[in-house]
Amino acid sequence: KKELEEEKIKEENEINDEKEEENLIGVNTWIEDYFDFDNYNHCIYLLNKGYYGIFFDKNKNILLNPNNPDIIYYIENNVKKKYNSTNLPTNLKEEIDCFNCLKDKLKPYNKILINQKEHNPDIYLKKFVEEGKAKFFWFSNNDMQVFFEEYKGYEILYCKETKVITYVNLKNKLNYSIESIKKKRIKNYGFNKRFKFVNDTLYNMREKI
Fold first, then answer.
1. Cα(106)–Cα(102) distance, integer angstroms
2. Which residue of 30, 35, 63, 204 has the smallest Cβ count within 10 Å?
């Protein structure tokens, strides 16, 4: 515990001096908040552009737009279907009823999020696992997001298309290129420690960045 507190102090002192690489584009879609239950068979989540998601049975997703609650997207095995409240199958209605009971577990819905560019419903949560004290989330576009349970407010995100890593801490949101990371150009203790954990964990899972 003492070692953990010392590391937190070291990182807090470092935050004010952090710098990112310029002209890098990171992920466009990410999870603002989530709540998982039922032994990781279920996860409800809020995306940065305002859509709610329900992930269940390891390969099924429901996407809900709070601005237009009558449009419901259902994705199973990468096949997307569009429903409305009048033709919704019973099993999906039950999932949405369950979501409505648990929605208060997420951050409050923020209408400012919806004022951004409309979310692309082809992007949704495809897989999530817990490894160590972190939770790994993969999206349908192959982007990835990692939340660190021991350090609330710290995240690592990976954009597959641009090969850019985004590091989020209590104060900053910094973009780094994979090339610079591999050449050890990044002088950031907190980031390097967490990236090594992510990279080692992905290697053990036979995944890679």
1. 8
2. 204
Angle formed by the axes of helices 189-204 and 2-15, to 10°? Answer: 120
For 75-119, what is each residue's pLDDT tens digit? 998 899 999 988 999 999 999 999 999 999 998 766 545 555 677
Distance of CA 166 to the CA centre of its chain: 12
Nearest CA among 141, 185, 194, 189 for reference residue 166:
194
pLDDT band at 201 (very low <50, low <70, confident <90, very high): very high
d(CA 132, CA 139): 20
Which residues, in sequence order, are CB contacts of 112 under 8 Å at separation 6+?
none
Strand pairing class (72-76; 31-37): unpaired
pTM of the model: 0.87
In angstroms and rounded to an integer, the radius of gyration of the C-alpha atoms of the chain is: 18
**Angstrom distance (rounded) from CA 107 to CA 46:** 8
Task: Give the residues across from 73 on adjacent strands.
Answer: 63, 82
Report residue 43's pLDDT band, with 50, 70 and 90 as the boundaries: very high
Asked whether 45 and 34 are in contact (CB, 8 A), the reply is yes
153 contact partners, CB below 8 Å, separation of at least 6: 168, 169, 170
SS3 state at 73: strand
